[in-house]
Specification:
Rossmann fold, nucleotide-binding, transport, about 270 residues, Simple sugar transport system ATP-binding protein, 12 strands, ATP-binding, binds adenosine-5'-triphosphate, alpha/beta, six-stranded mixed β-sheet, about 25% strand, four-stranded antiparallel β-sheet
């Protein structure tokens, strides 16, 4: 008898939130948020201060559990009790205030405890050459070239530090990437590096969530836009629904925000229902 043929699993969304809520006392930081983060797409999260963006990042990265609803990873419900658990499940987070070990070399920062070795038993040695090469290759994949991996990590500029974290996530097989954009202003070059790395992660098939305050940059790379207001989903739009100017107006907030969100969301559901 022949072995049953194992068909490839149907294309499953990598991460899905179903009516997910998080409360701080009487404040609903997130209220019944439902969104799918498909593999190979960049979903940008936009919203004013206090709209729940950081809370969303905290839940996805295992820093804080959700109170209600479900978080699904490739269709399986998950509930992370620590960032370590989220990482082990393949969710890599690039924190807003991402730190590197400044005095350690770039390649040491890339591996941080997972360095390649050669030889076995008592002859096992750190394979420094391989570590260097791997770091250079992985960084080139996210757009950082001419890198001297022996330089201390403190020599990396802000955008390149984020690139290092994204390159690591890709190298170590993450399925989803959560990027909380740095609040400190980045130069155009640093911003370009960061966006390049994010696009590289999408190309590799990761589900990417990008929290940003910059609608222009969001529109440059985003496939979908999740608009949060007071912890709730105010709109979920695709690139076809909005242009950069729409997103900027949405971010400007106020009544215009509400009116435009409603109009675009209605339009979106009409289009979605076709
Ligand atoms: N640890 C906490 N204790 C109490 N309330 C909190 C806590 N963290 C967040 N909140 C509240 O939850 C809501 C959402 O906050 P959150 O930080 O997720 O928003 P945000 O969109 O990330 O804002 P910002 O852009 O200012 O970081 C806000 O009303 C905030 O005051």
């Amino acid at each position: 008898m022949t072995e049953p043929v194992h068909r490839a699993a149907p294309h499953l969304p990598e991460l899905e939130l179903q009516r997910l809520s998080v409360h701080f006392g009487s404040v609903a930081a997130l209220s019944r948020v439902s969104v799918t983060l498909p593999a190979g797409e960049i979903t940008c999260v936009l919203g004013e201060n206090g709209s729940g963006k950081s809370t969303l990042v905290s839940v996805l990265s295992g820093l804080r559990p959700h109170d209600e609803g479900q978080l699904l990873l490739s269709g399986e419900p998950v509930r992370f009790r620590s960032p370590r658990q989220a990482r082990a499940a393949g969710i890599a987070t690039v924190w807003q205030d991402l730190a590197v070990a400044p005095l350690l070399s770039i390649w040491r920062n890339f591996f941080l405890g997972a360095e390649p070795t050669r030889g076995v038993g008592p002859l096992r040695r750190l394979d420094v050459e391989k570590a260097r090469e791997t770091t250079v290759r992985a960084m080139a994949r996210v757009g950082v070239t001419h890198l001297d991996p022996d330089q201390p990590a403190s020599t990396l500029q802000a955008g390149a530090r984020q690139s290092l974290a994204i390159a690591r996530a890709m190298h170590f097989g993450a399925r989803a990437l959560i990027v909380d954009e740095p609040t400190a202003p980045l130069t155009v070059n640093q911003q370009t590096l960061l966006l390049q790395a994010i696009v590289a992660a999408r190309t590799q098939g990761l589900a990417v969530l990008l929290v940003t305050n910059n609608p222009r940059y969001a529109h440059l790379v985003g496939d979908r836009f999740l608009l949060l207001a007071h912890g709730s989903v105010a709109g979920l739009l695709t690139r076809d629904d909005v242009d950069a100017a729409d997103l900027m107006r949405l971010m400007a907030g106020g009544e215009e925000f509400n009116a435009l969100t409603e109009a675009l969301t209605a339009l979106h559901s009409e289009l979605g229902d076709r």
